[in-house]
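Notebook, student rotation project (T.W.).
Task set for the rotation: take a protein with a known small-molecule partner, predict the structure of the complex, and write up what can be learned from the model alone. Partner molecule chosen: calcium ion. Sequence and SMILES entered below by T.W., checked by me.
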Amino acid sequence: MKTLVILLATLLSVPVLADVETETNNTESTADTLTAGELMSGNLSRDEDIDYFEFLASGVDSLELVFGSPNAMGTESRWLIFVQRATDGILIYQEVLGPTADLPITRNIDIDNSSLYWVIVRPPGGSLATPTDVYNLTITPDNFSPTLGAIEGVWQDNFDSFYSIHEGSQGLLYIELSTNPFGWNAYLGSRIEDRAVLDLVVGPGTAELELTFTSTEIYEARYITCQTEEGDACAAAPGELLYTSTKVFAD
Ligand SMILES: [Ca+2]
Ligand SMILES: [Ca+2]
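Predicted structure of the complex:
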């Protein structure tokens, strides 16, 4: 197991999977398609570059927009983001965003009908320079639910631990590829929409774990209950965020 973890840590130096924009996507008719909850990666290659993306919303009241730039240096990079309704061209969101490398920006955008929307990324204009850093864009509707198979793969948390998810007709198997000397833990349970509830089946003590998928690339982990082998409460309280994981390898 130690060998596997070291192998994973060596192989997976790029911690995010993404769709990538296809230039030229500078107009509505050449927009790249966004998939709900999936990360789209792009960059503004020059001052005249505009990136169009389209998202088809159905039965949705709001969209969560997450905009990040994992390699941004400092705080100088700014992008102008628009969300525009395709049917009548109405702008429903417009803001200049400046995420830092470690802090993507999240916005919730209310929408009032099922429709096609354009998400447009362009230089900020004025005296602000055009950033050429890679940006990551994710649109997640409020009725988002990962499809079966969409969360399969290897994930990495914000403390550099790895997790393996397998989902099928028997439920969801979640394996913690822990580097601790006592071996690995496994949980088994099921997922309904964006929430999985899992029981500890291999490992010390007892625990019920909740995974909340905020996209097909990110989930948050919390205990519902947890007791050590000695019957004491675990260090982390129920409901407290344990870690956030990002998918690093899809099955
Ligand atoms: Ca571009
Ligand atoms: Ca473009």
